[in-house]
């Protein structure tokens, strides 16, 4: 049994989370993750308005009796969403765990904490983790440069970022970015984390409501199949390499690009339409380097069970044997 401070604090079976994913974090996936013993998050901004989010929370509750959460991401957007109203829908929906991500979460954290909601803040730098800890969050999800979506601007991979954060952060900590199997889970625990958060890996499961073409593409892709866009705008995003991401990179490379120069290519609405049409070259799609380690499309339960079994086998088998052999040799 893989028990950690994270599983204890959040009342889940396994130290695995499925964090917020725009257009993917919907009730059927989140409920499947919860039913598999891990912790899933509905993505608030995937819902067109706070009323729809309230319905999605209720739908998820009909599908599972286990704990689940909601992600609220605060990053630059073309049309700023009414964050406070989404927050209200989360609180009034009786959600007990929230994942915040992005800039200046203080007012959200304060309100969630005032309503007895546990908050996990996802961030990409040790200084941001410490600042969130001072705000009173219950856990940190530290997101390395390998991740899909927004890795921040420091470019520190998990191998350094996770132990650097573990050296200073006192609350339980998830490692995020580049995780997808039992080896990654054991590595994260070894580096000082209390569990892992996975995005792209959960996208490529039976229950994720995205077209087969996207899942197949992520299976076929190797670890080099990502692009970093918005580098020059200081809002870096790691996305699946495709025709549109390459066009954005080319525009930025020319120098002096403004957001307006790429807006027609990167708009979330365009990405959503492309996804709904199964067109993997039609818009921007977030995916991480972990694509290189994704080779199948299992059910969520198969995936979670496999990761846990593999992690236990590594700890009890391979690693224990190394220590045992060393002890024998020393005799
Ligand atoms: P959107 O259509 O408003 O924007 C599309 C992309 O452009 C987003 O990545 C956004 O951060 C970026 N952007 C918008 N205005 C910008 C500006 N002025 N300067 C620089 N970059 C700008 O957003 P959406 O696709 O509808 O997504 C809604 C929210 O979810 C956004 O906050 C977005 O960042 C976030 N998101 C997060 C992830 C992730 O981290 N995994 C993936 C997709 C979207």
Automatic annotation (TrEMBL):
Which Pfam family is an annotated match for this chain, by its short name? NMO
- What is the official name of this protein in its record? Nitronate monooxygenase family protein
What CDD domains does the annotation carry?
Answer: NPD_like
- Give the highest taxon in the source lineage: Bacteria
User: What species is this protein from?
Assistant: Sphingomonas lycopersici
Which keywords has UniProt assigned to this entry?
Flavoprotein, FMN, Monooxygenase, Oxidoreductase
Give one GO molecular function term.
nitronate monooxygenase activity
């Amino acid at each position: 049994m893989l028990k950690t401070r994270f599983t204890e604090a959040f009342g889940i079976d396994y130290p695995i989370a499925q964090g917020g994913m725009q257009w993917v974090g919907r009730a059927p996936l989140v409920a499947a993750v919860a039913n598999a013993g891990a912790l899933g998050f509905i993505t608030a901004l995937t819902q067109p308005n706070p009323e729809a989010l309230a319905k999605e929370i209720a739908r998820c509750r009909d599908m599972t009796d286990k704990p689940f959460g909601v992600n609220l991401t605060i990053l630059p957007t073309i049309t700023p969403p009414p964050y406070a109203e989404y927050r209200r829908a989360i609180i009034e929906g009786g959600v007990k765990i929230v994942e915040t991500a992005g800039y200046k979460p203080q007012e959200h954290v304060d309100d969630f904490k005032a309503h007895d909601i546990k908050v996990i803040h996802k961030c990409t730098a040790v200084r941001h983790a410490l600042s969130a800890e001072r705000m009173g969050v219950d856990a940190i999800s530290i997101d390395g440069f390998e991740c899909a979506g927004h890795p921040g601007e420091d470019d520190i991979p998990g191998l350094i970022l996770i132990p650097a954060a573990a050296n200073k952060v006192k609350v339980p900590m998830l490692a995020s970015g580049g995780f997808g199997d039992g080896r990654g889970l054991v590595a994260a625990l070894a580096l000082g984390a209390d569990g892992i958060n996975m995005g792209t890996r959960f996208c490529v499961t039976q229950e994720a409501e995205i077209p087969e073409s996207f899942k197949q593409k992520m299976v076929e892709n190797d670890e080099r199949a990502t692009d970093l866009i918005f580098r020059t705008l200081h809002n870096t995003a790691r996305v699946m390499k495709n025709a549109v991401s390459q066009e954005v990179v080319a525009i930025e490379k020319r120098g002096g690009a403004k957001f307006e120069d790429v807006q027609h290519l990167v708009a979330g609405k365009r990405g959503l339409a492309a996804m709904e049409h199964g067109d993997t070259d039609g818009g921007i799609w977030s995916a991480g380097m972990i694509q290189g380690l994704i080779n199948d499309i299992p059910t969520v339960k198969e995936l979670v069970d496999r990761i846990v079994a593999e992690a236990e086998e590594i700890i009890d088998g391979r690693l224990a044997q190394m220590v045992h052999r060393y002890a024998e040799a020393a005799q």
